[in-house]
Amino acid sequence: MSGATMPATSVPGRPKAVVSWSSGKDSAFALYEVRRAAQLDVIGLLTTITDRFQRVSMHGVRESVLEAQAVAAGLPLYRVSIPSPCPNDVYEAKMGAMVQRLRVDGVTHFVFGDLYLEDIRRYRETRLAGTGLTPVFPLWGRPTGELARTMIRAGLRATLVAIDPRKLPAKFAGRAFDESLLADLPPGADPCGENGEYHTCVTAGPMFAAPLRVHGGPVVERDGFVFADVIPDDDGPSRD
Protein backbone atom coordinates (compact mmCIF):
# COMPACT_ATOMS: atom_id res chain seq x y z
CA MET A 1 0.00 0.00 0.00
CA SER A 2 1.60 3.24 -1.11
CA GLY A 3 1.13 6.48 -2.97
CA ALA A 4 -0.62 8.79 -0.52
CA THR A 5 1.36 10.70 2.05
CA MET A 6 -1.69 11.54 4.15
CA PRO A 7 -2.78 8.59 6.33
CA ALA A 8 -6.40 7.56 6.55
CA THR A 9 -8.09 8.56 9.79
CA SER A 10 -9.71 5.52 11.33
CA VAL A 11 -13.23 5.82 12.73
CA PRO A 12 -13.59 3.45 15.71
CA GLY A 13 -16.66 1.24 15.66
CA ARG A 14 -17.38 1.47 11.94
CA PRO A 15 -16.73 -1.39 9.50
CA LYS A 16 -13.62 -0.81 7.39
CA ALA A 17 -14.04 -0.31 3.66
CA VAL A 18 -11.98 0.36 0.55
CA VAL A 19 -13.22 2.09 -2.60
CA SER A 20 -12.65 0.59 -6.03
CA TRP A 21 -10.93 3.66 -7.43
CA SER A 22 -10.82 4.14 -11.21
CA SER A 23 -9.59 7.75 -10.93
CA GLY A 24 -12.92 8.80 -12.47
CA LYS A 25 -16.06 10.61 -11.39
CA ASP A 26 -18.22 7.62 -10.39
CA SER A 27 -15.72 6.10 -7.96
CA ALA A 28 -14.94 9.58 -6.61
CA PHE A 29 -18.60 10.38 -6.01
CA ALA A 30 -19.13 6.95 -4.46
CA LEU A 31 -16.39 7.85 -1.97
CA TYR A 32 -18.13 11.14 -1.27
CA GLU A 33 -21.51 9.50 -0.70
CA VAL A 34 -20.10 6.78 1.57
CA ARG A 35 -18.35 9.38 3.67
CA ARG A 36 -21.53 11.45 3.85
CA ALA A 37 -23.51 8.42 5.03
CA ALA A 38 -20.98 8.00 7.86
CA GLN A 39 -21.62 4.27 8.24
CA LEU A 40 -18.31 2.91 6.94
CA ASP A 41 -14.70 3.74 7.75
CA VAL A 42 -13.01 4.14 4.35
CA ILE A 43 -9.33 3.29 4.85
CA GLY A 44 -8.03 3.19 1.27
CA LEU A 45 -8.46 3.33 -2.50
CA LEU A 46 -7.90 0.22 -4.62
CA THR A 47 -6.73 0.75 -8.19
CA THR A 48 -5.52 -1.51 -10.99
CA ILE A 49 -2.40 -0.25 -12.75
CA THR A 50 -1.34 -1.48 -16.19
CA ASP A 51 2.35 -2.13 -15.59
CA ARG A 52 3.36 -1.67 -19.24
CA PHE A 53 2.21 1.95 -19.21
CA GLN A 54 2.31 2.73 -15.47
CA ARG A 55 -1.18 4.14 -15.79
CA VAL A 56 -4.62 3.43 -14.35
CA SER A 57 -6.16 0.58 -16.34
CA MET A 58 -8.83 1.59 -18.89
CA HIS A 59 -8.62 5.28 -18.01
CA GLY A 60 -4.98 5.75 -18.96
CA VAL A 61 -4.36 8.17 -16.06
CA ARG A 62 -0.77 8.62 -14.94
CA GLU A 63 0.28 7.14 -11.61
CA SER A 64 1.49 10.59 -10.54
CA VAL A 65 -2.05 11.92 -10.99
CA LEU A 66 -3.48 8.90 -9.15
CA GLU A 67 -1.11 9.58 -6.27
CA ALA A 68 -2.15 13.24 -6.19
CA GLN A 69 -5.80 12.13 -6.01
CA ALA A 70 -5.01 9.87 -3.06
CA VAL A 71 -3.28 12.69 -1.23
CA ALA A 72 -6.23 15.01 -1.90
CA ALA A 73 -8.64 12.34 -0.62
CA GLY A 74 -6.48 11.73 2.45
CA LEU A 75 -6.30 7.99 1.75
CA PRO A 76 -3.55 5.49 0.94
CA LEU A 77 -3.55 3.41 -2.24
CA TYR A 78 -3.84 -0.33 -2.66
CA ARG A 79 -2.29 -0.98 -6.09
CA VAL A 80 -2.96 -4.07 -8.19
CA SER A 81 -0.47 -4.30 -11.06
CA ILE A 82 -1.69 -6.12 -14.16
CA PRO A 83 -0.13 -6.86 -17.57
CA SER A 84 -1.37 -5.60 -20.93
CA PRO A 85 -3.24 -7.40 -22.28
CA CYS A 86 -4.47 -9.06 -19.09
CA PRO A 87 -6.11 -12.51 -19.32
CA ASN A 88 -9.12 -12.84 -17.06
CA ASP A 89 -7.55 -15.63 -15.01
CA VAL A 90 -4.51 -13.44 -14.28
CA TYR A 91 -6.76 -10.54 -13.28
CA GLU A 92 -8.84 -12.71 -10.97
CA ALA A 93 -5.75 -14.25 -9.36
CA LYS A 94 -4.27 -10.83 -8.63
CA MET A 95 -7.55 -9.49 -7.29
CA GLY A 96 -7.97 -12.62 -5.18
CA ALA A 97 -4.58 -12.02 -3.59
CA MET A 98 -5.54 -8.41 -2.91
CA VAL A 99 -8.82 -9.48 -1.31
CA GLN A 100 -6.86 -11.70 1.07
CA ARG A 101 -4.64 -8.74 1.95
CA LEU A 102 -7.67 -6.55 2.58
CA ARG A 103 -9.10 -9.11 4.96
CA VAL A 104 -5.81 -9.19 6.88
CA ASP A 105 -6.11 -5.40 7.16
CA GLY A 106 -9.58 -5.80 8.65
CA VAL A 107 -11.55 -4.62 5.63
CA THR A 108 -15.11 -5.93 5.44
CA HIS A 109 -16.70 -3.77 2.72
CA PHE A 110 -15.78 -3.00 -0.90
CA VAL A 111 -17.33 0.15 -2.41
CA PHE A 112 -18.04 0.39 -6.16
CA GLY A 113 -19.21 3.29 -8.33
CA ASP A 114 -21.36 1.17 -10.66
CA LEU A 115 -24.64 2.75 -11.75
CA TYR A 116 -26.94 0.23 -13.46
CA LEU A 117 -25.13 -2.50 -15.43
CA GLU A 118 -26.55 -5.67 -13.89
CA ASP A 119 -23.92 -8.03 -15.34
CA ILE A 120 -21.05 -6.07 -13.80
CA ARG A 121 -22.78 -5.95 -10.43
CA ARG A 122 -23.45 -9.70 -10.52
CA TYR A 123 -19.81 -10.34 -11.42
CA ARG A 124 -18.60 -8.32 -8.44
CA GLU A 125 -21.06 -9.96 -6.08
CA THR A 126 -20.15 -13.44 -7.33
CA ARG A 127 -16.39 -12.85 -7.02
CA LEU A 128 -16.73 -11.49 -3.49
CA ALA A 129 -19.14 -14.17 -2.27
CA GLY A 130 -17.55 -16.09 0.58
CA THR A 131 -14.52 -13.77 0.87
CA GLY A 132 -15.76 -11.85 3.89
CA LEU A 133 -16.04 -8.64 1.85
CA THR A 134 -19.48 -7.12 1.26
CA PRO A 135 -19.93 -5.14 -1.98
CA VAL A 136 -21.52 -1.70 -1.59
CA PHE A 137 -23.06 0.30 -4.47
CA PRO A 138 -23.92 3.80 -3.18
CA LEU A 139 -24.84 5.21 -6.61
CA TRP A 140 -26.82 2.23 -7.87
CA GLY A 141 -30.05 2.95 -9.73
CA ARG A 142 -29.84 6.73 -9.70
CA PRO A 143 -30.93 8.27 -13.03
CA THR A 144 -27.67 9.12 -14.73
CA GLY A 145 -28.71 12.49 -16.14
CA GLU A 146 -29.77 13.65 -12.70
CA LEU A 147 -26.68 12.09 -11.11
CA ALA A 148 -24.33 13.81 -13.55
CA ARG A 149 -25.82 17.19 -12.74
CA THR A 150 -25.71 16.44 -9.01
CA MET A 151 -21.98 15.73 -9.33
CA ILE A 152 -21.39 18.99 -11.19
CA ARG A 153 -23.44 21.04 -8.69
CA ALA A 154 -21.48 19.43 -5.84
CA GLY A 155 -18.27 20.86 -7.30
CA LEU A 156 -16.88 17.74 -8.95
CA ARG A 157 -14.51 18.60 -11.79
CA ALA A 158 -13.23 16.02 -14.24
CA THR A 159 -11.70 15.64 -17.68
CA LEU A 160 -12.74 13.09 -20.31
CA VAL A 161 -9.54 11.06 -20.65
CA ALA A 162 -10.63 7.96 -22.57
CA ILE A 163 -13.14 7.82 -25.42
CA ASP A 164 -14.54 4.83 -27.26
CA PRO A 165 -14.84 6.30 -30.78
CA ARG A 166 -17.40 3.65 -31.68
CA LYS A 167 -19.75 5.24 -29.16
CA LEU A 168 -18.69 8.88 -28.96
CA PRO A 169 -16.82 11.18 -31.38
CA ALA A 170 -13.09 11.36 -30.64
CA LYS A 171 -13.33 15.16 -30.39
CA PHE A 172 -14.81 14.74 -26.89
CA ALA A 173 -11.40 13.60 -25.57
CA GLY A 174 -9.97 16.21 -23.22
CA ARG A 175 -13.28 18.01 -22.63
CA ALA A 176 -14.43 19.02 -19.18
CA PHE A 177 -17.23 17.08 -17.52
CA ASP A 178 -19.75 19.91 -17.20
CA GLU A 179 -23.20 21.07 -18.25
CA SER A 180 -21.91 22.01 -21.69
CA LEU A 181 -20.65 18.48 -22.21
CA LEU A 182 -23.98 16.98 -21.18
CA ALA A 183 -25.78 19.24 -23.64
CA ASP A 184 -23.45 18.19 -26.47
CA LEU A 185 -23.62 14.43 -25.98
CA PRO A 186 -25.21 12.70 -28.99
CA PRO A 187 -28.61 10.99 -28.65
CA GLY A 188 -28.32 7.63 -26.96
CA ALA A 189 -25.08 8.42 -25.12
CA ASP A 190 -25.34 7.86 -21.39
CA PRO A 191 -24.77 11.13 -19.48
CA CYS A 192 -22.37 9.36 -17.10
CA GLY A 193 -20.74 7.22 -19.80
CA GLU A 194 -21.93 4.06 -18.07
CA ASN A 195 -22.00 2.10 -21.33
CA GLY A 196 -18.31 2.77 -21.96
CA GLU A 197 -18.73 5.92 -24.02
CA TYR A 198 -16.08 7.71 -21.99
CA HIS A 199 -13.98 7.61 -18.83
CA THR A 200 -12.86 10.55 -16.72
CA CYS A 201 -10.12 11.75 -14.42
CA VAL A 202 -11.35 13.71 -11.39
CA THR A 203 -9.32 16.79 -10.52
CA ALA A 204 -11.52 18.50 -7.89
CA GLY A 205 -14.59 17.88 -5.81
CA PRO A 206 -16.06 17.49 -2.34
CA MET A 207 -14.13 14.23 -1.84
CA PHE A 208 -10.82 16.14 -2.07
CA ALA A 209 -9.22 18.51 0.41
CA ALA A 210 -7.97 20.67 -2.47
CA PRO A 211 -8.06 20.63 -6.28
CA LEU A 212 -5.28 18.88 -8.17
CA ARG A 213 -2.76 21.12 -9.93
CA VAL A 214 -2.79 19.66 -13.45
CA HIS A 215 -2.92 20.64 -17.10
CA GLY A 216 -4.03 18.96 -20.30
CA GLY A 217 -1.61 16.98 -22.44
CA PRO A 218 -1.56 15.31 -25.86
CA VAL A 219 -4.44 13.31 -27.29
CA VAL A 220 -3.41 9.92 -28.71
CA GLU A 221 -5.10 6.89 -30.26
CA ARG A 222 -4.16 3.50 -28.85
CA ASP A 223 -5.75 0.05 -28.97
CA GLY A 224 -8.93 1.39 -30.52
CA PHE A 225 -9.48 4.14 -27.95
CA VAL A 226 -8.69 7.85 -27.81
CA PHE A 227 -6.81 9.05 -24.73
CA ALA A 228 -6.33 12.63 -23.49
CA ASP A 229 -3.42 12.99 -21.09
CA VAL A 230 -3.70 14.83 -17.77
CA ILE A 231 -0.34 15.99 -16.43
CA PRO A 232 0.58 17.26 -12.95
CA ASP A 233 1.94 20.80 -13.15
CA ASP A 234 5.33 19.65 -11.86
CA ASP A 235 5.64 16.79 -14.41
CA GLY A 236 7.38 16.97 -17.74
CA PRO A 237 5.94 16.18 -21.18
CA SER A 238 3.90 13.08 -21.88
CA ARG A 239 5.87 9.82 -21.88
CA ASP A 240 3.76 8.38 -24.73
Give a short synopsis of this structure:
With about 240 residues, the chain is α/β, with parallel strands linked by helices. It has helices at about 25-35, 65-75, 90-105, 120-130, 145-155, 180-185; strands spanning about 15-20, 40-50, 55, 75-80, 105-110, 135, 155-165, 200-205, 215-220, 225-230. The model is unreliable at about 1-10 and about 235-240 (pLDDT under 50).
Task: Write a structural description.
The chain has 240 residues and is of the alpha/beta class. The chain has one domain (16-232): HUPs (Rossmann fold, 3-Layer(aba) Sandwich). Helix content is 28%, strand content 26%. The chain has helices at residues 25-37, 63-73, 88-104, 118-128, 144-153, 179-184; strands at 16-20, 41-50, 55-56, 77-82, 107-111, 134-136, 157-163, 198-204, 214-222, 225-232. The strands form two sheets. Strands 1, 2, 3, 4, 5 and 6 form a six-stranded mixed beta sheet that branches. It is globular, with a radius of gyration of 17 Å. The protein starts with 15 loop residues before the first strand and ends in an 8-residue tail after the last strand.
What's the SSE blueprint?
Blueprint: E1 16-20, H1 25-37, E2 41-50, E3 55-56, H2 63-73, E4 77-82, H3 88-104, E5 107-111, H4 118-128, E6 134-136, H5 144-153, E7 157-163, H6 179-184, E8 198-204, E9 214-222, E10 225-232
Parallel strand pairs: 1-2, 1-5, 2-4, 5-6
Antiparallel strand pairs: 2-3, 7-8, 7-10, 9-10
Strand tally: 10
Please give the oligomerization state of what you see: single chain
Strand content: 25-35%
Average of per-residue pLDDT values: 93
CATH superfamily, by name, is: HUPs
CATH domain class: Alpha Beta
Rounded to the nearest angstrom, the distance between the terminal CA atoms is 26 Å
Can you tell me the CATH topology? Rossmann fold
| Biggest sheet overview | 6 strands, mixed
What shape does the CA trace take?
globular
User: Can you give the helix content as a percent range?
Assistant: 25-40%
Low-pLDDT runs: 1-8, 236-240
Rg of Cα set: 17 Å
Tell me the domain tally: 1
- Strand-pairing-aware structural class: alpha/beta
Individual helix count: 6
